[in-house]
Every structure is written in C-alpha cells, then in structure tokens.
Write a structure and sequence with these properties.
heterodimer, A: mainly alpha, B: mainly alpha, two-stranded antiparallel sheet, 15 helices, about 5% strand
Amino acid sequence: MDVVFSVAFFAAVVRLTAPIAIAALGEVVAERSGVFNVGIEGMMLMGAFGGVWGAQIFGATFAGVLFGMLLALALGLIVAVLVINIGLDQIVVGIVITIFALGVTSYLNGVVISSSDVHDYQLTRVAIPLLSDIPFFGSVLFNQNPVVYCGYVLMAAVPWWLYRTHDGLVLRATGERSEAVAFEGHRVRWTRYKALCFGALTAGLGGTMISLATGGIFIDAMTAGRGWIALIAVVLGRWRPLLSVGACALFGLAGALQFRLQANNPDLPVELFFALPYVVTLVFLFSLKGKSGEPAELGQPYTAR
Amino acid sequence: MNPAALVQRATSTRVLLLLIPIFALFGGLAVGALFLLIAGVDPVDGFDSLIENSVGNKFAIANTISQATPIMFTGLAVTICFRAGVYNVGQEGSLYIGALAGIPLAIYLDLPGPLLIAVAFIASAAGGALWSLIPAIAKVRRGTNEIMSTLLLNFIAIYLVGYFVAREYGPLWNDEQQNAASKFVKEDAHLTSLIDGANANPAILLAVAIGLVLIFLLNRTTPGFQIRALGFNPAAARYAGHSADSTVIWTMLASGAVAGLAGTAAILSQNFLLSAELSPPPGWGYIGIAAALLGGLRPGFVILAALFLGALTAGGQGLQLNTGAPSALSDVIQATTIICVMAGSALGLVIKRRLEISRALKAPSERPATPETVER
C-alpha cells in the first residue's frame, strides 16, 4: 500500500489533473455567464496541436504554449459568433466545432508538423526554489511544469474574481438573469464573449500540457475526451471553481491509480484500467440528483436588442 | 416588373431555402480548397481526386455506398433523439456494443445464411438499445444530463470491445493471428452485393427503409407527434398529457437499436471480423451527428446527407493516395459545411424577418386599395 501512495503517485495525480482542471476553471466562467461551451474538447485539442506546431515554428516551448492558446481562442471566436451573435444551438455548435477541430488537427498533423524535430520541445519540470523543499507536499506540488503553476494561479484567481469582484458578480448575473443585467446597463453579449474567450484560452492552455508535457508530439485525437471530462467536472462541482477542480482530481486520481493497479496486477486486462477513470466519473455523475447550482440561463441565446 | 417586386420574389422563403444549402456547400468547399493549398496541393487536383474516388467509376460509387451505410444508420439514430430534444450522442457506443452483440453470433452460430444475418442484426439492435437504456433511465430517474452520460459510455464501450478482442486474453480473440481481432464471420453471413465486381453494402437498403419508416412515424403517428412535441415545446407537451419520461426512454432505445446496426452492417459487408478499431476516426457515431444536422433532422434529408458524407469519406481515402493530402480533409469539409448551413439558415431567417418588417412598414400609397384609403 505504501508503494501505491508515494510522492511519485501524488505528483502523477497533479500532473494528470492539471490540464483538465485548467480547462474546467475556464469552463466554469463561461457557463456562469450562460454559455455552454461544448466545444471545449475541440479547443483543448487545438491547444495540444498548436503547442507542438508553435514550438516548431518559433523554436521555443513557451512560444508553443502561447500559439496553442491562440489556436484555441480562434476556435472560441468562431463559436462565439455562431452562438452569441447568430444564436445557434450551443450544444450542436459545440459538437460540430469539435468534429471540425478533430479534422483540422488530424489534417495539419500530416502536413505542417515536421517529423524531424519531434520530441525536441517539451514542458519540463521546474522546481520552485524554497517551496519544493517542503517535505512531501513540496515534491508533489512544486516540482511540476510551468503550466501546472499557471493552474495554481488560476485556482486562486478565478474564485476570487468570480465571487469578490463586481465584474465577477455581473458575469454570474448574466448567466442567471441577463434581462436584469441589461437593465442595469451592462452589455450581455460582450460579457459572454469575454467569458467564452477566457474558456477557450484556458482550454488551449490545458491542451498544450497534453502534448508538450508527454513527449512533445501530437497524436490524432490525443485529448481522448478530457475536454468532455472538464465539462462534466463543472457539473459535478456544482459550477463552483474549486469544487470543479476537485472533480477533475477524481479523474486524475483514477488515472494515476490506473497505472499503479496495472503494474501491480499484470494479469488483469489493461482495458479495465483504461476504462476506470471514465467509469468513476460516470458513477459520480449518476450519483447527482437534480441540477442545483446550474445557471438559470445556461444555453439560452440572448435575443433582446 | 418593378424592383420592389423582384426583391420580394427573390427573397421568398422557397428561394432562400434553396439557395442556403448551395451557398453552404460552397463555403465548405472553399475552406477545403484553402486547406489543400496549405498542403501544397492544387485545389483542382484535390477536388478532381475527391470526385474521381467518390463517384468517378463503379468501384468508387460502390465504396461511397459502403461508406455511407453506417453513417446512415447512426444519422437516423441521432435524428430520432434530437427531434425529441434528447441530446443522445451515444451512437458510437451503441454501434460498438451492437457489433459486440451481433458479430459473435455470425462467427459461431450454425444457421443458414439469411437467418444468420437476421439473427445478427436483431442481436445488434438489442445490444445497442440496451446500451442506451442506461443513460435513458439515469436521465428519467435522476435527471442526469444525457450528453455527458452517453459520451462517457462511448469511451467505456470502446474499451469493452477492445477487451473482448484483445490479444491473449480476449474471449473472442482469434489465436491464429496477431492482431487484436476476432475470427472471421461465417461465409454464409457475408453481405456482399457485387455489381460488376464492385462491392456495395446492400445493408444501405435497410437503412433507407428505416428512414422511410421514420418519416412515416414522425409525421403520421401519435408517438411521432409526441416526439416532435417534446422537441418543440416540452412544457406544452406535458400539459397535453404526453409523458416526457416514456418518450425519452423509447426514443433513446430506438436510437440505440438503429445505431447498433451500423457496426454490424459494415462488418458483414467489408472486413468480416470484429476488431478494436471498429469505427474509423472520427467515428461513425459522430459523423452520424453531422449527417443528422446537415439533414436538418429530417429523415429524408439525413439519408441524402449520409450519402454526401459517405462520398466525402470515400473521396478522402483516394485523396491521400493521389495527392498526399491527408484524408482528414473530408472531416474538415464536413464540419465546415454544417457550420455554413446552420449559420446560413439562421441568417436567412433574420434577413427574411427584417424584410417582412420593412414591408409591413411601407408608406400607405404603396398598399393595395382598401375601402378605408379609397374613402379618404
């Protein structure tokens, strides 16, 4: 049992949770403003692809991360126009944009990614000087790659902004009663635009970690549904930022367990362990009763002039 | 004819409805051309290759039909649910489980040909329906969001099938070879339709038949009315006495059953065995959603959309061989076309409404003479 719950194990949990949690934090903001960003899976995928591509174009991993976020943002803007300006069904647009992202990344993967300098650009771990010396927690939390540290910042910034600033209050109100918000003189569509773009940027950021922190290559559809997991985590977390991160940690924990259990039980089928994180998430999803905390106007287009 | 009347004619609903899909097609193709340029391929060559490999000769047409068949099944399956406002996206999972239920029967049972095929299909439909039952009950009993539950179940289904055909330990694994796949289905169960040497999947006829049944069901029966009512206005439907719960359950069951047929239909006509990579990326289930959307959730148009998407897929396969541009281009064109269609329709409605308003606000002298105006 000690072998299972070691520093390496929990460090792996953090590493597996981070991409999904970062995307989920952005998704909380988007959904709280009333936009159901189902395209998050496609945006994470664009982030993963853009990370590798950008790193190759500009010759630096950091540039790759920014480029990945940019590609995800581009996708987010398309969704924003379709959903906020034209008022198309948010779920349908999200699904289609994900299919689009799957096609585009798969296509460009064969065309623009140079196979020679693959593996060259990777997100490596950076130990934070004093903090990483803390026994146990230091090694687990503060010896990760920089994107994970961005995640910590977001974990503090998003709840603070959402619950303790006026703009955050306006955003939350936009998702509950956009009519009232408009009456007060705020611009509903612009707020939702910003929220959706933030969601797209975070999805892209999380996505870059999926490719750049695991070998620096892009494989078709490598997000493997993690964007959907982030979406589900927001529901499990009752649309609250830190609870949603906790829900992501469930998935990360199951993922880390998957490797451990697999190693300790080589005679059990590997598919069982692959399916484990999804089964765990599903069980928790089924255990929810009702929809408490869901923003009242989630998914509804804003139609007044 | 004066200009005002011309504009009125040109923007009549029927003309708009006809023009929008055409513009949408151009939108999709324009983006496709752009991506071809990125790959350094001459768009003309690219489209030439797409057309050649989808409808250029009988082998291409047969391939198009075969590629379209599973998409037609899943597309119709999506239509059943989406019309009711139930966002069941679990067709991918249903088709995997359907294949898992039906193909082993076609491998191991000893029955005469047509009976064996029928048994396999029935088992597949049952398997697919059962897989959809789980999220259906969860939705009805606990209000679980069906998008999320069905998406998760898709992944679980793929791993489940992967287990059954896994090397060494999979119960269905064919130990006479190395791949993670099952034994071959019996010769009798092969669904081949050779027209001059080209194999077109005859199961497409079954899919079309299901589509026709669906048209009849949706438009002329009470259950169909309940589906449409639920999709259009759930509150009104409940007020009218329809049971939303029962409609949700049996639309999901029906959807799962139809989707369950997709994988089996493809296998019995093309590769004749069950493997871990049953549904080529992005997955027939998801392309089915694309087909349903392109068809505006109307079964007749969904059938046409499935044929179009099948042609794109077939064309894309040849594209990679001929020009080196990855076959994923067809997915890009698919998604872009849908976006253009949806955006176009919505914009068309906006334009139409604006024109109606401006017409209604016209100066009195242009209105037709009525007793009031004449008297003045």
